[in-house]
Amino acid sequence: MPELLSIRPMVRDDLEAVVAIERRAFSHPWSRKLYEDALSSYQCHVLEQQGRHLGHVVMQYIFDEAHLLNIVVAVEQQGRGLGRRLLEFALEQARQRSSVSCFLEVRESNRAAYALYERYGFNEIDRRRNYYPTTEGHEDALVMVCTLADEWMLIQG
User: Fold this and answer.
1) Residue 105 known to be catalytic
2) Which of 4, 11, 82, 131 is the most buried (most CB within 10 A)?
3) 3-state class (DSSP) for residue 97
4) pLDDT tens digit string along 76-108?
C-alpha cells in the first residue's frame, strides 16, 4: 500500500510538533518565537502522514528569488526520501511563483543535505564564515543556488 503523505500549510497549532522536531534534529534549533514570526512572514508547510508531522519547510520570496530558509525531517524518519519530497515541493512552489532562482545556506558538515541539493541542480556559490553556531564554536555555511529560470521561461514561452 502506498504511503499517504501530504504537504499542507503550517498553522499555529502545528508549532508544538514543529519545535519538537527541530530540537531533536538540530543542536541549535529555531525557537518557537522564530516559527511564530515565520508563520506571518514566510511560506511554511508541514509534511504529514496520517496526521503525524514528519517534517517541514520554510520559504521566503523576494521579487523573483526564492530562499529556502529551513527544511527539516524528523530524525526517526530520515533516510526515507522525505527531505527530497519536501525539497521538490518547495522548488515547485517557487516555480509557481515565477521565481527565477532559489538560494539556501547549508552547514558545511551536512554532507547528506549538500548532496541532495546538488542532485536538484544547486551549485555552491559562496561561503559564510562562522555562520552557524556549534557546541564547539561556529562552522561555515555554504551558500548554494539553483536556477529555475530555464524551466520558468519554457512555461512562459
Assistant:
1) yes
2) 82
3) coil
4) 999 899 999 999 999 999 999 999 999 999 999
User: Cell numbers at residue 27, please?
Assistant: 543542536
Q: Are 55 and 82 in contact (CB under 8 A)?
A: yes
Number of domains the chain is built from: 1
Residue 65 contacts residue 101 (beta carbons within 8 Å):
yes
C-alpha–C-alpha distance, residues 56 and 86, integer Å: 7
User: Which residue among the candidates 35, 105, 114, 151 is catalytic per the annotation?
Assistant: 105
Catalytic residue among 16, 117, 124, 151: 117
Q: Which three cell numbers stand for residue 39?
A: 508563520
Name the pairing type of β-strands 43-49 and 65-73: unpaired
**CATH for 15:** 3.40.630.30
pTM given for the model: 0.90
What residues have CB less than 8 Å from 47, skipping those under 6 apart? 5, 6, 7, 53, 54, 55, 56, 57, 73, 82, 85, 86, 89
Known catalytic residue at 132:
no
